[in-house]
Design brief:
The protein is mainly α. The protein is about 70% helix and about 0% strand. The longest helix has 21 residues.
Amino acid sequence: MKNIEDMSPLALAFLGDAIHTAYVRQEVLKGEKEKLNTYHTLAKSCCNASAQAQTLERLQDILTENEQEIVRKARNTKNKHSAKNFDEQTYKKATSFEALIGYLYLTEKTQKLEEILKISTQNLQKNAK
């Protein structure tokens, strides 16, 4: 694998999306037994551009300079994809959030990663009701 610092922000986001989705799904399964469709609906409440953008905004006070730089680079990266259901600014923030998750995972900053993933699922139980 490449040096993490040399990886494209979009590559970090690609990985971060998978890490975040897996974490959210694990959290959903910790709840009461539900139908598969309910699991999907709950997970979708955290795994969408709007929710990820909102989480990123809540993180600003706890990010290090280096983490803020990862977010900035990801936000400013040109992306050939566009969001189907969200405006470009929201989509860029979500991509930045995912890049941050990917970066923290690859650099093995597990405590910070866990903290951010927990923040990203705070509303999960509220959405279950």
